[in-house]
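--- STAGE predict ---
source: upstream dedup step, 1 unique chain passed
mode: sequence only
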Amino acid sequence: MRDSMTFRLNRSSLLLVVIGAAFSGQAHAAAGRVEFAIGGATVQGPGGQQRPVTRGAEVNSGDVVRTTNGRVQVRMADGAYISLQPNTEFGIKDYRFDGKTDGTEGAFYSLLKGAMRTVTGLIGRVNRDRYQVATPTATVGIRGTGGLIQIQNDGSTLVQGTSGIWFLANPAGSINVPAGVSGLAPSDPKQPPKETEGPPTAGPAPLPPEDGYVQGNQTEDDGTAVITGNVLLSGSGYFGQFAYGTSDLTAVADQMNGNAVFNAAGQLTEFSDGRANVYKLVNGSHADFGTDGLVAWGRWIGEVSNSGFGTEIYKPEQGFHYVVGTPTATMPTTGTATYTLLGATRPTYVDGSTSPGSFAGSMDVDFGRSILTANFTVTMPDRKYDMTGSTSVSSTFQLSSPAVTGCATSCSGYIQGFFAGTNAERAGVGYNIYDQKEVVGAAAFTRR
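--- STAGE serialize ---
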């Protein structure tokens, strides 16, 4: 494998990096959108009307989601994920988010029975008091990333945090519950919450491991979930695509045979090209993340230690975007294929001037002719862009001048990517659009 790097420097722009070896947010008034639904589940609106839960359906304040034998995953407008387990009743009591954490935001939910797993978004990370879940026996708050909230058979409330700090309160008192510790609010409101070694014997057995979260399409053609429990493991030989930047510097780089470090959830924490280029994700959190065991993609907010450019800090409205996977060693030489969206990071402006946007797209590949055609749509809160173009393809590809429409002025774009899997089952891309403001993002595709 080769290692190479090419930089394109451009003042007042984005840093888009492609390193050799992405879901889409919404910019509308809906509180959230269903991203995965399987089995029996319904949504009841404020007026009492019930409707089935389907992927892509919107949910809003006043809605109550009920599952029987089903599971439902909802992505909220601030980037939070909520995964509802079977036999659960979950309500969106009051949800407010306009893209900023200025004190007007709020995420107030209810969990009347069952269990939910949550990965918080901007609201839960910035202000614990503005993110609360009311249960029959407690009030739960969180400042951090996520974990499990479960109503036991005796009515007690169990909290099991995977990261961050939880707040568990009832009329008799309150406690902070750090990551890796369980907290219990007893069914008797006169007894204060306490730490516990594990689920009480009065309740059901612990739930299965936390569901993975993925943006975009959630099922294969046969209806099976994209997330299989597999995650990428730390090691060498990875191809990665990173899109990130500061307001006054841009660059494009290409490196292969990279060394990647992942945490237990399969989230990238470090990438190096085996030479002097090292990228470390520290002092922050993933705002977007997904994986299917072949590729992983995410958007990191916080600090990134970049050996080439020093330390960079990305705000919640910005991000360090990536998609990584094991490159295809031998590409197909015959036939055609369509690649549909598996998942994507929410595109962001480099200057962080608005909340993140959404991404949609597909790619068609003629392996016999070695031609790839891309059709992408990037929707920001204040503008919608379409990018189209064709290019020659091997195990990697780039469109240095795709056609871009929807620009405020004349603008340009850039797309670069790779194929992953033994038979090019997946593809990952990084992209940017340079208009009056510059957009960046990453996406993963699956072969159909």
